[in-house]
Design brief:
The complex is a heterodimer of chains A (193) and B (175). Chain A starts with 17 loop residues before the first helix and ends with a helix. Chain A is an all-alpha fold and 193 residues long. Chain A has seven helices and no strands. Chain A folds into three domains: 113 residues, no CATH class; 31 residues; 47 residues. Chain A is flat and about 50 Å long. Chain B is built from eight helices and no strands. Chain B folds into two domains: 134 residues, no CATH class; 39 residues. Chain B is mainly alpha-helical. Helices cover 79% and strands 0% of the residues of chain B. Classes of the chains: A mainly alpha (193), B mainly alpha (175). Chains A and B meet through helix 1, helix 3, helix 4, helix 5 and helix 6 of A and helix 1, helix 2, helix 3, helix 4 and helix 6 of B.
Chain lengths: 193, 175
């Protein structure tokens, strides 16, 4: 792997070529378990110097604003920015290929051995704790400053509709999203005056 | 049958790509509804097990979709489901990333962000609730889930340690 960055942190060095994009996203993909977004900053800003910290924050806000898996969006945005559609494709491939191959192996093992009692017991423990991680992610988001307390009622309604009533997501969003966005607009206007 | 199921998976997951507001975890409840409730391809317990395995594997957390696809229809299902969830939002990102500089500070973008943020929270908590319900049968298992959540919130421990402890606890038979 090339050591592109001499100056860590705030200065961008050279625009990565296709090979560097592939390897960079491969590195990000294999750095973390159960989510790699925190590693994207580390690799792209600190290690390889592709973008500055501010540019990264900007990219992150775009990828969180748009629908879809955030880190996947980021691979496309970063790849496209440096090397057009080829860069987007190569970055996406770098991010997904190795993890997909690994998880298919895991899936094959699960299909073959998942019914054995000991394996079943281990998987039960893993899924119990992994669920806890997801719950923690949700709780962290409640207290994050991005969410205005005034609007949390819409989150409660989404939870009731999706988790408890099991209403399909599309109609839930068609009703709640416009309402919540208008409420956000109203609350911003009120704050500004 | 594999190809029929793959096609059905792709058709179900394609639109989810564009309504996954705030990331992949927000559409887990809808994926569960599709593969467990509507099609009966797996149980809620199996769905939670696949979620757990995806967390114990390196890579983006969207990989749970790959495992779900694998369980439903083998390799074609795995690749189909993964691409279905990624490609529409990737195309949207590709189309819009240059415009972001111009729009990020517009009032409507701020309102959309502000309005969608609480919905994202509600949906991630829905995912947590449904996966927890599917994963656990015993009170001890619920306790393990709660202990994990509390530990991750209160300390800076690497979540992978919690998964490892969970595996050990499972093997010891206390869950």
């Amino acid at each position: 792997m090339s050591e592109a960055s001499q100056n860590v942190g705030e200065r961008v060095t050279a625009a990565p070529d296709l090979r560097a994009l592939f390897l960079g996203f491969l590195e990000i993909a294999l750095s973390g378990f159960g989510g790699v977004l925190p590693w994207a900053r580390r690799v792209m800003v600190e290690k390889r110097g592709w973008v500055t910290g501010d540019e990264f924050a900007d990219l992150l806000s775009l990828c969180q604003f748009l629908p879809g898996p955030n880190i996947v969006n980021m691979s496309v945005a970063v790849g496209a920015r440096f090397r057009g559609w080829k860069g987007a494709f190569v970055s996406f491939a770098g991010l997904m290929m190795a993890p997909v191959a690994i998880i298919l192996c895991l899936g094959a093992l699960y299909s073959s051995y998942g019914r054995i009692d000991q394996v079943q017991a281990v998987i039960r423990g893993i899924s119990a704790t992994a669920s806890g991680l997801l719950v923690a992610t949700g709780i962290k988001m409640v207290v994050a400053p991005r969410v205005r307390s005034l609007l949390l009622g819409f989150g409660v309604m989404a939870f009731l509709a999706v988790a408890l009533l099991r209403i399909p997501l599309l109609p839930v969003l068609l009703v709640l999203a416009p309402a919540s966005i208008l409420a956000a607009r109203w609350s911003y206007l009120r704050r500004d005056t | 049958m594999v190809w029929d199921r793959t096609l059905q998976l792709v058709l179900d997951f394609l639109p989810l790509s564009l309504i996954a507001v705030g990331g992949g975890a927000t559409v887990l409840p809808e994926m569960q509804r599709s593969v467990v409730d509507v099609h009966g391809w797996m149980t809620a317990t199996q769905f939670s097990e696949l979620f757990g395995l995806a967390n114990a594997s390196p890579g983006p957390n969207v990989l749970v979709v790959t495992l779900i696809g694998w369980q439903v229809a083998g390799v074609p299902g795995a690749l189909g489901a993964t691409l279905a969830l990624c490609i529409p939002s990737c195309l949207l990102t590709f189309a819009l990333f240059r415009l972001w500089q111009r729009f990020r500070d517009s009032p409507w973008v701020k309102c959309i962000e502000g309005g969608m943020a609480p919905l994202t929270v509600g949906l991630v908590l829905s995912s947590g609730y449904l996966v927890t319900r599917g994963a656990n049968e015993s009170a001890m298992a619920y306790a393990a889930t709660a202990l994990t959540a509390a530990t991750v919130l209160a300390t800076r421990v690497n979540p992978l340690w919690m998964i490892g402890l969970g595996a050990a606890a499972g093997l010891s038979g206390i869950l």
